[in-house]
């Protein structure tokens, strides 16, 4: 039996779908208040759903009965300042619980981290798995939560855990809808006027799921892998999306002082509305930073060829 945590989320649902389609027996965890993802509507009878928050060690232990493989996709993502510390505690505690139980029961794990937990390279160099985030200089709550969660997995490996870690770049795909990375497409579709100088990596959600499955079945242990199809500047990305929507591409460069005003305005709007800010200080600064990633390690490990980002962009735009 295979357990997928976070299967109601964007990536977790895609992992569950891939496993079911290949004929594997799977169990998926969800919170009692979670909605079933539309992506899995056609597979309801083939999935054993259990209510188990990963911060509840007792419920998690029950969910792991008879399980020999775990895909850990569960994570809380929030830009709200008030939720920073609770998010860190939740993500780290949940991962620690899962690690402890997998060590105890000799269960193999593929853990989803993020490139947010990977450090920076020197100017002009690609970021690789050997780079590590400096927690003493990091203020992004999500990055800290992913780094500390990843450290729990490394701690487990030192105690005998059979595991591998994946660090995806920005995951895109049709099933994201208007949430998460889907907000990028929705923002451009509504007529984005500005672009930033930054760059980052992008990867199709299906490719991330395929890499995770291949790593699980490879027997590789004690390694981390950046999962990235291509590096794109935000200007390139926005221009291509706008082209598929047949609208003008963003033509004005958003300078750092403009981004400063933007995140402050978003913070004020969030206070007034009570909703999460559409832009926070960390994201505003990151939008102007060049972060390009090396994907050679994963390609060599499982002989994988990534789907071109342009194909995924086209599919997303045509689905709207």
From TrEMBL:
Q: Which PANTHER family match?
A: NAD(P)-BINDING DOMAIN-CONTAINING PROTEIN-RELATED (PTHR48079:SF6), PROTEIN YEEZ (PTHR48079)
UniProt feature coiled coil, ranges: none
> What Gene3D superfamilies does UniProt report for this protein, alphabetically?
NAD(P)-binding Rossmann-like Domain
Give the range the annotation lists for the signal sequence. none
Among the entry's GO cellular component annotations, what is one? cytoplasm
Annotated SUPFAM superfamilies: NAD(P)-binding Rossmann-fold domains
Output the InterPro entries linked to this UniProt entry.
Epimerase_deHydtase (IPR001509), NAD(P)-bd_dom_sf (IPR036291), NAD(P)-dependent_oxidoreduct (IPR051783)
Q: Which organism is it from?
A: Mucilaginibacter segetis
- Pfam families cross-referenced by the UniProt entry: Epimerase
Q: What GO molecular-function term can you cite, just one?
A: aldehyde dehydrogenase (NAD+) activity
Q: Where's the NAD-dependent epimerase/dehydratase domain?
A: 2-227
Tell me the protein's name.
Answer: SDR family NAD(P)-dependent oxidoreductase
Q: Highest taxon of the source?
A: Bacteria
